[in-house]
Specification:
- The chain is α/β, with parallel strands linked by helices.
- The chain has helices at residues 26-38, 50-53, 64-75, 103-111, 144-158, 160-164, 205-217, 251-278, 303-308, 320-327, 353-366, 382-392, 420-433, 462-466; strands at residues 8-11, 43-49, 79-85, 116-118, 124-129, 168-173, 285-290, 332-335, 371-374, 407-410.
- The chain has one domain (2-114, 125-192, 265-469): Glycosidases (TIM Barrel, Alpha-Beta Barrel), CATH 3.20.20.
- The protein has 14 helices and ten strands.
- Helix 12 (382-392) links the parallel strand 9 and strand 10 (407-410).
Length: 487
Amino acid sequence: MMANYVPLYVMLPLGIVSSDNVLTDKEGLRKLMSKLKTAGIDGVMTDVWWGLVEGKGPKQYDWSAYRSVADLVKECGLKLQAIMSFHQCGGNVGDAVFIPIPKWVLDIGESDPDIFYTNRAGNRDKEYLSLGMDHLNIFQGRTAVQVYGDYMKSFREAMADLIEDEVITDIEVGLGPAGELRYPSYPQDQGWVFPGIGEFQCYDKYMKAAFKEAATKAGHPEWDLPDNAGEYNDTPDETEFFGPNGTYLTEKGKFFLTWYSNNLIIHGDDILDEANKAFLGCKVKLAAKVSGVHWWYNVESHAAELTAGYYNLYVRDGYSPIARMLSRHDAVLNFTCIEMRDSEQPAAAKSAPQELVKQVFSGAWRQHIDVAGENALPRYDSYAYNQMLLNARPQGVTEKGKPKMRGVTYLRASDDLFKEDNFDLFKIFVTRMHANQEYCSDPGKYGQELKPLTRSKPKIPIDELLEATKPYGFFPWDEETDLSVDG
């Protein structure tokens, strides 16, 4: 039975560290984690905000608040998943506080606004630096990738003893807005409303130049970035690009979408390589988050996925190349929306979260990497819990060797979660996630012994990554979980 044990983590509240980088309520956080511990959870997750830690200037790191958080986690007998959060908090679903990226970086953006992702209308998104910045020396003599790498090295030094003690076990590397490997294609603070298709975000001068260079090299100097892909809240059929027989099916459209999505994969690969170097030899697992863009999945163009950077069609798997890239770093693919069911979505959105989860997980398992997951929205009901349990063990409690998730992170600790009825059901959920076993402090007993991080394998050429776009069927999936919270 222990082979079926899936560890359960809980995200801590967003505002535990204040905007001036101070732990706001140490005793309150201790009580919160102690309460969670009574449910039998394995650990907690927290964002470690770049905008707070390196907020005072380049390489002026202040880890004191997060050190206090990590010490409390150890005191409460829990494990910690730390997110290297290189994005802004604010402007996305559930963002209860506002934490911008560092002011010294924003100041550079004042004189050069093209460091930010930009849509066709010229609107800048200041959540996260454009991937066009990855290898430009404009941040006090460093590239964006070097800035991220230095931050992670400093974190390792500041938390060395807690990593050694296996308190900090997972490092999730932020790779885009909301910490996800994607473009900021659906920003709420620019008026996007579900289920709008979103917009491409590659119209800053650096990405424009990169596209023109790529198109010229391909023999088409006349090609430009799309001008017919609509606006944030359009439907696919309202645009020339995504409509029936749309531009996305043409040679020009395919070239653009390949370029757009390839850049995202290379961006993730480069930063994860820095993470690997930063934590080399540490007993931690690296992870990257991929967003569950489930709306418009059931239309030919998969428009919302395409604007986010996931070039996924019925005839082309857009997620397996990401999984193959992650495989060279032995990194976990963390996916959202594992609580959602198709029947809960509005029909007009042409949404299919269940099929999307199956596709992403199946592709990752074919690339021999681990998957983890989290709920996209706060839920306290048996339907959501049972769906998460089903996705954690798609073929139920079974003999060793069947696919299961490496871990589930529940979003998030809150007053609503601690209401008596909600918390009682949550405790049952934790027990079911553990396959009805008692809490186990030794990951080796359920096949997840932490080993020292070794150097990433050689870089995989983009052509080899794209070989994974050939679509395959899904792994077998049960209709319902065999360990429901209400059964």
